Amino acid sequence: MVLAELEVYHSRPVAPTRRVALGEMRLPVDPPPGFGGILLGGIVAANIGGVDPDFLPDLARLTTRLEEGMNVPQPQLRYRFQKDRIGLTRSTHRLIGHGDALAFEFDDANGEPSQQLLGAVYAVGELRPTARRAVMGTVRRAITWQGTIGPELITALAGFNKGASWSTHALSHPIEWALEVLEFEADAVAAGAGRTNGGGANGSAANGANGAGVRVNGKGIGPDRIEIQRRYRRLLIEAHPDHGGQADDAAQRIADLAEARRILLG
Question: Do 181 and 95 belong to one domain?
């Protein structure tokens, strides 16, 4: 299933002119960076190694101008950005979902690295202002990426800590995923009724008129911060092989618990 897609139009490598334009864009960015931001970051990370290092300061200035919605003088990195696609060649890049796994599909056969990278960066500038800053932050992480182009990159671009889950569910609904990892009842939290798996006084999500509850998606009150910490510590102990946890799954489980706590507590 295609989760995000970007068409980059560009001049051929042998053409006397250097031009870049954007085509169709399917770039969901909710919650930021979303699948669209991950795709744009992946394009940048996959192509940054082919960019002349002398142009990196110019690239940094370009990202700032686009993030702030400023006018961008042309050309940038020797390429002129334009709206017209006539006479240009198309490259299509996708983020694909296979069940809970994600993978990139890059079409780099007909374009130069600078062209593909510029297409991704200019695409950030086309996003609505409320999402632009978060997605440009993802692009900046991609610029400094030193690892392979694969699962670890996707995890990093999504803002997850290394080793944490990067399933499609986790990336598209991080708070819901975090509540499930920490074994809270999502329906009770959404209703704001203060019920959790633990129940009782210690499990009251609405406990405390002092505002200790965690906001869920900007509305309603989620689990109490103290209860999140308590649940995290209990499940962490249970996940450890010395306390009966499955040795083969312990590292992933511990990483997921830590990431779930970070998402809910900020």
Answer: no
